[in-house]
Design a protein that fits this description.
- By secondary structure, the protein is mainly α.
- The protein is built from three helices and no strands.
- The longest helix has 19 residues.
């Protein structure tokens, strides 16, 4: 399986708003813990280590995210 980077979110702005709302009231450390938990939950849903490696590599590229 390969990483699918085509736009798939029907409402990317709405998703960003959900993330921002989830961070509301969190200090920097709590926000980092939230982000880590969310990443692990989504990684578990993906479940394919090759895809996860591709995503990590892509996220580390300058100008991404």
């Amino acid at each position: 399986m390969t990483l699918d980077t085509s736009p798939r979110l029907q409402d990317p702005d709405g998703f960003l708003a959900l993330i921002m709302e989830a961070h509301r009231g969190l200090d920097a450390e709590a926000a980092r813990r939230f982000d880590a938990r969310l990443a692990l939950i989504l990684a578990n849903h993906i479940g394919d280590m090759a895809v996860l490696r591709q995503a990590i590599s892509l996220a580390r590229e300058p100008g991404r995210g």
